[in-house]
Amino acid sequence: EIVLTQSPGTLSLSPGERATLSCRASQSVSSSYLAWYQQKPGQAPRLLIYGASSRATGIPDRFSGSGSGTDFTLTISRLEPEDFAVYYCQQYGSSPRFGQGTKVEIK
Amino acid sequence: EVQLVESGGGLVKPGRSLRLSCTASGFTFGDYAMSWFRQAPGKGLEWVGFIRSKAYGGTTEYAASVKGRFTISRDDSKSIAYLQMNSLKTEDTAVYYCTRLVVVTAPAAYWGQGTLVTVSS
Asked: Residues A16-29: pLDDT tens digits?
């Protein structure tokens, strides 16, 4: 059973700053099956990145994903006010698993 | 436009049953796998299970936490996916989301708004 650990738990940043979120897996994950989601309070998650580095439809290019094996990263190049939210990584495919989430809050 | 609307949530006592529905529109329902996820209050996301399209056998898979208690089914003629939940426990309290998957090994690009299930005596 793969366990995904996200860090940090909370990231306090200002608009315009760069955000770097980490997702570490307990065993190797095929890059084809690693996704990132954004969730705002009271809303369903929104798919941002799939296949570790491919942006989903309509996602701004300030969001980028990278990594392979057990270490993956979501980068938001310049935070916009609407980007303050909780972000989850997910290993999808058989028995999908999520990390515990990283909250990006306004400093 | 793809739309997924969950319904059927509510307050239920431990040990009882509840059936959730996910009504889909804006796409050919029968061509897609459907998956259910849940999120306990203030907690993270958890996969519940999925059902393949008929083209892939219409078979189901479940998370260990619900296997044997929950059943996913589909009615392609009505474009509805169901989540039958039996022997409910207090730890099943969560917002339940249905999602559309191209195939079960795909990420969830489309989500419903969720329906809250509260299991309490």
From this structure: 999 999 999 999 99
